[in-house]
User: What shape does this take?
Amino acid sequence: MTSVDRPNRMMAASGAILLYAVLIGYIDNYVRVIAEGTGLWQFQAMRSALVLVVVLAAVVLPFAPRLRVVAPRAVLARAVVQSAAMFTYFGSLGFLSVAQAAAGLFTAPIFVMLIGRFAYGHHIGPVRVVAALAGFAGVVMVLSPDPADLKPAMLLPVAGGALYALANIATREWCARESAAVLTVSYMLVMGVLAAVVLAVLWLVAPDAPPGVAGFLIRGPNAPSGEVLFWVAVQAIGSLVAVGLMVRAYQLAEASRVSVLEYVVLPFSAVWSWVIWGETIGPVAVLGMVLIVAAGVAMTWRGRVA
Assistant: This one.
């Protein structure tokens, strides 16, 4: 049975995405603490190692899911693409807020529609195209309320959005027969291996990384503090649960429909930033979020009736 023939269970997918958004919005706000004391690559290597320890410990439990891979090459390809997407997202958290980084990542629905249309022949109507463009305008408003302050580096999450879109398409089109556990574990494993390779290169090259958040992207291996280790552990457990929920959502419904539901991460990220750090956002950014959410609702509605 092809992905076109499988029914879309939107209510179940929506519930999974809502829980994913609440969890991700919270734990990602603490990446700034991690960035102060270690580098992106060591963070990802440690996080993946902790996730794999948890998974291996859980495998012996009687209710643990079976990790049987149906299509190894497809699973590996998806894991590499999603890892690249998340490297760009987490890298941007070194100099952007969670809401800004997430806004850039949420150009993904535009790329999902384009890939779905030209690679798989999915129908997209003019309303969904206009909604996607409105959503992109909202992304720009959240990234930089003043267009004069929009810097090329701020578009890094947009590149992540293109990769994230491909990974989401792959979840349903390439890996529909795989379990959520297989896709989650494979992604964490591949991400950890890639991070370890880059970390080894940085150890050999030993670049002069600035202190604090400024050195997040190029910092080599170091001895992190207890606080950093704590939040890496929280990231590991939280992301394991959250990514599993996200993967399941993309298996329950078509990627072009589920991807727009992820817009709910934006308000949750902003709320958590306010609760945890006391940060607020300006009226232009609020308007941008409204545009993004409205575009997501319009695209979901048109996808349901198309």
